[in-house]
Amino acid sequence: MNSPKNNYQENLKGLRDDLANMLPKEALEIFDADAESLQENHSSIIKLQVGDKAPDFSLSNATGKTLLLTELLQNSKVVLTFYRGSWCPYCNLQLAHYQQSLDKIHALGAELVAISPQTPDESLNIKEKNELNFEVLSDEGNHVARKYTTVFKNAEAPLNTMKNLGLDFDAHYSDDSKELPVPAVFIIEKDSTVSFAKSLGGDYRNRVEVSEIINHLKNK
């Protein structure tokens, strides 16, 4: 895949072309139907609104170190993004997209933190694969995600399709709940107040543009 441009939607077309070449047509149709179904069935995603206090958490990073939100907020604002897993091409695209603007995010007084229900080993995998220079945390069991965004059980059709493609979904997680968070982004001020909360809905193919994050940080 080509190096991502600093615009998710622009690069999404290239990813879709790649997937069309890599995957059987029937498999891609099943994944797309799943995304469209999730969009229809999950209309109220965000659990926190602007002005709410962000719940504190304690999670392991990719090397097993425990990080607390309150400790991160002592030094900077936090841009928190929830993603599905290292097996999800749209998550990889989004995180690589954010990595390209990491210096700008830092210059605006914020740290970027990504959270998924994956094990620390899988967090390390996605960090190394995409050369990510920000914290990738493991929320095994989605305990933190439930306080911020919607958590749902992955459907049988995409799971069976992944299995047929040789992808072991369960190997990425420490439980067999098959639960995933709906992707969402939050910006948390140093006093723990949520100043930005956004999800583009259940359709995981769509993600918050980094330009929105940067514009918000600039205007705060």
TrEMBL record:
PROSITE patterns in UniProt: THIOREDOXIN_2
Xref: PANTHER family: SLL1159 PROTEIN (PTHR42801:SF7), THIOREDOXIN-DEPENDENT PEROXIDE REDUCTASE (PTHR42801)
Protein name: thioredoxin-dependent peroxiredoxin
Any one of the GO CC terms: cytoplasm
One of the GO biological process terms: cellular response to oxidative stress
Reactions performed catalytically: a hydroperoxide + [thioredoxin]-dithiol = an alcohol + [thioredoxin]-disulfide + H2O
InterPro entries: AhpC/TSA, Peroxiredoxin_BCP/PrxQ, Thioredoxin-like_sf, Thioredoxin_domain
GO molecular function, one term: thioredoxin peroxidase activity
Entry's EC annotation: 1.11.1.24
Function: Thiol-specific peroxidase that catalyzes the reduction of hydrogen peroxide and organic hydroperoxides to water and alcohols, respectively. Plays a role in cell protection against oxidative stress by detoxifying peroxides and as sensor of hydrogen peroxide-mediated signaling events.
Family note: Belongs to the peroxiredoxin family. BCP/PrxQ subfamily.
Domain Thioredoxin intervals: 48-220
Keywords recorded for this protein, A-Z: Antioxidant, Disulfide bond, Oxidoreductase, Peroxidase, Redox-active center
Enzyme class: oxidoreductase
Domain of life: Bacteria
